[in-house]
Amino acid sequence: MQDLFERFTTAILKLNKLVQRIKVHEMKKFGLKSVHVMCLYYLNSRPRGITAGELARMTLEDKAAISRALAEMRQRGYVVYDPASHSAAIRLTEEGVRLAEYISQRAAAAVGAGSAQFTDEQREFFYTSLITISDNLESYYDGLIKNSKGNDND
């Protein structure tokens, strides 16, 4: 059992680190950081705009990190929004759309490289399994939290 835990956690951590390194490498030429990748990706998929809160939930980043990322992207001309409003719709500019499309192309290349030896069926099974594991672990964690709160009142 320990071997499975070690293999699983090591593989997940390695994947995360590699994805972060790829994001950093791709954003360096634009003077941006890895946090900007998912912001641009999600903003591009919602041309009508989304709020900073929605973006924080989608990217799994904290609101402060999203706020800093948006301010930098606004300064560089990639997004438009009213910074005085907490519920302002954030949209990509034309330059932001071009950068987001570049990111999408690079992301597709990275995902393709990561699953190069997979058949379409293997790829589908892998992603379905990964999402199921993530959902199951989230439920497990929620149960741990719920049980610990119940024990705190004892």
Task: Explain what the structure shows.
By secondary structure, this protein is an all-alpha fold. 74% of the residues lie in helices and 3% in strands. It has helices at 2-28, 34-45, 52-59, 63-75, 94-114, 120-152; strands at residues 79-80, 91-92. The chain has a two-stranded antiparallel sheet with strand order 1-2. Helix 1 crosses helix 2 (34-45), helix 2 packs across helix 5 and helix 3 packs across helix 4. The chain starts with a helix and ends with a helix. 15% of the residues are buried.
Structure keywords:
154 residues; globular; single chain; Arc Repressor Mutant, subunit A; two-stranded antiparallel ribbon; mainly alpha; 2 domains
Structure in a nutshell:
The chain contains 6 helices and 2 strands; from the N terminus they run ααααββαα. With 154 residues, it is mainly α.
Order of helices and strands: HHHHEEHH
Runs in which pLDDT lies below 50 for 5 or more consecutive residues are none
How many helices does DSSP assign? Answer: 6
Number-wise, the strands total 2
The helicity comes to: over 70%
What is the correct CATH architecture of the largest domain?
A: Orthogonal Bundle
Strand order of the largest sheet: 1-2
Describe the main β-sheet briefly: 2 strands, antiparallel
Secondary-structure map with pairings?
Elements: H1 2-28, H2 34-45, H3 52-59, H4 63-75, E1 79-80, E2 91-92, H5 94-114, H6 120-152
Antiparallel strand pairs: 1-2
Helix pairs in contact: 1-2, 2-5, 3-4
